[in-house]
């Protein structure tokens, strides 16, 4: 749980900065650099605990709609980060304000899908 909070929390802070809601005193690149160690720690935790949780009862997870929702949103989030958001976090990014807002909003929606799917697994 702590690992997902680290990853989603740091990503949300960067997304809020992209949207322009918070932390306007820092550039996106500065904020991403400051949060990178926390994000990496969360990713390491997820990579260690996620597969262990899955192998405890793979049949339960594979057939669960919310697990598939979570994994789909997570895959889309990773692809979006690799091909779009990473460029916005680079020093000297020339992205306009509307591009930043759009990217931040899409990222927040994808992360919301990951969290909703994760909670749905435990409830249903």
Verbal overview:
The chain is an all-alpha fold. It has one domain. It has helices at residues 2-19, 28-56, 58-62, 65-89, 97-123. α1 packs antiparallel against α5 and α4 runs antiparallel to α5 (97-123). It is elongated, with a radius of gyration of 15 Å. 21% of the residues are buried. The mean pLDDT is 92.
Note the main attributes of this structure:
124 residues, mainly alpha, 84% helix, elongated
Outline:
The chain is mainly alpha-helical.
Number of helices: 5
Shape: elongated
In terms of structural class, how would the helical and strand content be classed? mainly alpha
Strand content: under 5%
- How many distinct domains? 1
What portion of residues is helical? over 70%
The ordered H/E elements are HHHHH
Write down how many β-strands occur, each being a DSSP E stretch of 2 or more residues.
0
Low-confidence parts lasting 5 or more residues at pLDDT below 50? none
Evaluate the radius of gyration. 15 Å
Write down the overall mean pLDDT. Answer: 92
Major beta-sheet overview? none
Question: Between the first and last Cα atoms, what is the distance in angstroms?
Answer: 18 Å
